[in-house]
Write a structure and sequence with these properties.
This protein is an all-alpha fold and about 120 residues long. It contains five helices and no strands.
């Protein structure tokens, strides 16, 4: 059967990036390698809650380069309250968990979101 007639290759309704990441092209990313490296580094720095001043400056630089806007919880009263509620909820849910494994899982999930690829889940011990 011709590839263009194969129902598995039907691209109707897909975005361009979904088509490029499909079997027909075999690409791992629709971005250039430098953009992927910058995004990976941005995620790594974002997850580090104890950044040095140099790392903070690098994060700010990457957010500009990647055209990202870092929202701070202090911007509005509602944003401050939402941030407080989120922090309180997270704190209550993570107490007793292995913080290092939790951070690794967060990193893995953020990379999944960025790349649209899935991995085998980390199994609890």
């Amino acid at each position: 059967m011709c590839a263009h007639l194969d129902p598995a290759n039907d691209v109707r309704g897909l975005r361009a990036d979904q088509i490029l990441l499909g079997r027909g092209f075999g690409l791992e990313s629709v971005r250039g390698p430098e953009m992927d490296r910058d995004q990976d580094r941005y995620i790594e720095l974002s997850l580090n809650m104890e950044r040095t001043p140099a790392e903070e400056a690098e994060l700010v630089g990457l957010s500009g380069k990647l055209n990202l806007y870092r929202v701070t919880p202090e911007e509005t009263r509602e944003a401050r309250e939402a941030a407080r509620l989120i922090e309180k909820s997270i704190d209550s849910r993570i107490s007793g968990l292995d913080k290092e494994r939790l951070i690794e899982e967060i990193r893995a999930q953020m990379l999944e979101i960025k790349s649209a690829f899935r991995r085998n889940p980390i199994r609890s011990k």
